[in-house]
Amino acid sequence: MLTPAETSGHVRPSQAEAEAAVRTLLLWAGDDPGREGLLDTPKRVAKSYLELFNGYRTDPVQLLQRSFEEVAGYDEMVVLRDIRLESHCEHHMVPIIGRAHVGYLPRGRVVGISKLARVVDAFSKRLQIQEKLTAQIANAINDVLDPIGVAVVVEAAHQCMTTRGVHKHGVTMVTSTMLGAFRDDHATRREFLSIINGRSGTFEG
């Protein structure tokens, strides 16, 4: 799978170039990248980026390819709620922390539930806006599994809003994508929303 940078013809920088970029940012912030506490910071940051943005190297379609048809006639919705979500705002490159709730109505075949969580990770471990992230998760499941319907709700706190700018703490953004039966059938949508709302607890971004 090609990353967006590779698709647009850009060559991925080397480790040394990435570390040099971090040193430049440290200077820009007003610190000395040569002082003892920051000597290994460029290397650590470059390494952490591989983890924080490993979604660029994960193919969500491939994750969903293996499905199971032996479901004993099961035709009710499958819901995985409260999937921890960690992403980064593509405008300020600061964290987006929250939860995703994913549901689908199978059309004769199901996928392992860990794969649903991995699809959420594959799209969230990229530079994102929450609206696009929500749609990407739903569309991938819909395109590969061809279910009767897909529903995705994402609730998240954006540190671009809580730690900078307007500094509004405790604000949660909620986005949803409903496809197929979840969009067309009000009863199906209400059942899904009832399932994901039947919980307690909060998260801090």
Automatic annotation (TrEMBL):
Q: What is its EC number?
A: 3.5.4.16
The UniProt keywords, alphabetically, are: GTP-binding, Hydrolase, Metal-binding, Nucleotide-binding, One-carbon metabolism, Zinc
Superkingdom, taxonomy of origin: Bacteria
Annotated GO MF terms: GTP cyclohydrolase I activity
In which pathway does this enzyme or protein participate?
Cofactor biosynthesis; 7,8-dihydroneopterin triphosphate biosynthesis; 7,8-dihydroneopterin triphosphate from GTP: step 1/1
Q: Where along the chain is Zn(2+) bound?
A: 89, 92, 160
- One Pfam family linked to the record: GTP_cyclohydroI
The answer to whether keyword Metal-binding applies is yes
SUPFAM superfamilies to which the protein is assigned, alphabetical? Tetrahydrobiopterin biosynthesis enzymes-like
Q: Which residues form the GTP cyclohydrolase I domain?
A: 19-196
Q: Which reaction does it catalyse?
A: GTP + H2O = 7,8-dihydroneopterin 3'-triphosphate + formate + H(+)
Hydrolase as UniProt keyword: yes
Cite the PANTHER family for this sequence. Answer: GTP CYCLOHYDROLASE 1, GTP CYCLOHYDROLASE I
Q: Which family does it belong to?
A: Belongs to the GTP cyclohydrolase I family.
Question: Quaternary structure?
Answer: Homopolymer.
Q: What is this protein called?
A: GTP cyclohydrolase 1
